[in-house]
Amino acid sequence: MEKDEVNQSEETYDFETTFKKWCIEGYALLEEEGLVITNDEGKESANLALRRMLAFFIDEEEYEKCYIIKKALDENFQDDKTPLYDFKKI
């Protein structure tokens, strides 16, 4: 394996590990505090984060978490609420 391939592999692993950690922490906050949005910019960011978390937990087959996330999306957003899998492209 060449040096560039090793570095890319390490970067992919680091991103996957970090993203998984963010999803777990974000879900814990959602479960503990509910969804708190303070402004329109925060609303757009929250929508994207929840949709990415939803896609992640679907892949992980953690459907109880998916239910809570989907409920938060349904209660707080009228626009796109579909799972967002763009994190897989990174």
Characteristics of this structure?
single chain, 90 residues, mainly alpha, 72% helix, globular
DSSP summary, beta strand count:
0
Uncertain ranges: none
Number of helices, where a helix is a run of at least 4 consecutive DSSP H or I residues: 3
**What is the C-alpha radius of gyration, as a whole number of Å?**
15 Å
Please report which band the strand proportion falls in: under 5%, 5-15%, 15-25%, 25-35%, 35-45% or over 45%: under 5%
Number of domains: 1
SSE string: HHH
* Nearest-integer average pLDDT: 88
Net shape: globular
Distance between the terminal alpha carbons, to the nearest Å?
A: 21 Å
What summary fits the major beta sheet?
A: none
The assigned structural class equals mainly alpha
The residue fraction in helices comes out at over 70%
Walkthrough of the structure:
By secondary structure, the chain is mainly alpha-helical. The chain is globular. It has 3 helices and no strands. It has one domain (3-89). Helix 1 (3-33) packs across helix 2 and helix 2 (40-59) packs antiparallel against helix 3.
Task: Lay out the secondary structure.
Layout: H1 3-33, H2 40-59, H3 63-76
Helix pairs in contact: 1-2, 2-3
